[in-house]
Design goal:
single chain, 271 residues, eight-stranded mixed beta sheet, 8 helices
Length: 271
């Protein structure tokens, strides 16, 4: 009787283990899937200015955006020194799910080689901010060269395993720099097109051009802005080109243009 009881007990335990085994195997997979699809409440909006502009470039824009949205967004400014040091002003308010983070550079000069350096400096700031604030998705806007810096960052430095780029808005970004000849490709444009397959597939991009004249916004040629289509189309989830005309459509005034402020409220802050 004792032997029969022992074998019966072992049989019952074996059946229980076999029934529970799929659950034990499924739980790690479930945790992995939850981790992959979980989005933090915090999803900052990064703003990157163009050449000759500092981390204070968008103060007026942020004030205007806060007037246009139901809830106020806090503002954190970061200046990246040439030695990699980060200098912070402002703060992210607790509970603010979509704060603005402006990243500027001590060396904010123009030029292809400098843009490449600024993209690396932005990556340094971004990684430090992600480590501090633990967000895993974000959106971004770049004015002029700021759009180039963000595009280079997403192609070369964004760790897509840990963070998701939701939306990118580029305003008057010269993807072929200031080249006016449509038959000439600059080294920057060649680099951006060569690495475009590294762009995040889930990214939605809006490329905005200003129209002060028939050929551009007074500084950046139309052709240079419109070349964004050769970089983003068929590489990201969505790509839209927009041309803004009328008042404040020249290059320097575009970030505060009322049409663009409306587009930012609609496409960067409502998701």
């Amino acid at each position: 009787m004792k032997r029969k009881f022992t074998w019966g007990f072992i049989g019952v335990v074996s059946v229980i283990i076999l029934l529970c085994l799929p659950g034990f195997l499924w739980r790690p997979q479930q945790r992995s899937e939850v981790r992959d699809h979980y989005q933090t409440l915090l999803a900052p909006v990064f703003l990157v200015p163009g050449s000759s502009a500092t981390q204070n470039r968008f103060n007026a824009l942020v004030t205007e955006l806060n007037h246009e949205t139901k809830s106020s967004h806090s503002l954190l400014r970061v200046e990246v020194k040439t030695n990699g040091q980060l200098v912070y002003t402002g703060s992210i308010r607790p509970g603010d799910e979509h704060p603005f983070i402006v990243v500027g550079f001590q060396n904010h000069n123009d030029g292809y080689q400098n843009i490449l350096k600024q993209a690396k400096w932005f990556a340094l700031a971004f990684n430090a901010l992600q480590k501090t604030y633990k967000f895993n998705h974000f959106s971004a806007m770049g004015h002029s060269n700021g759009g180039l810096i963000l595009t280079l960052f997403m192609e070369d430095s964004l760790d897509q395993k840990t963070v998701t780029a939701n939306r990118l808005m580029t305003i008057a970004s010269p993807f072929n720099l200031e080249e006016k000849d449509p038959d000439v490709d600059t080294p920057l444009f060649k680099r951006l097109t060569a690495n475009r397959q590294h762009l995040p597939r889930q990214l939605v991009v809006y490329s905005i051009a200003g129209s002060k004249t028939f050929t551009g916004d007074g500084i950046v040629p139309f052709d240079s802005v419109n070349r964004g289509k050769y970089i983003f189309q068929d590489q990201v989830k969505g790509f839209t080109q927009i041309t803004v005309t009328g008042a404040n459509a020249n290059h320097a005034d575009l970030p505060e243009n009322q049409q663009i402020v409306g587009l930012m409220c609609q496409d960067l802050l409502s998701h």
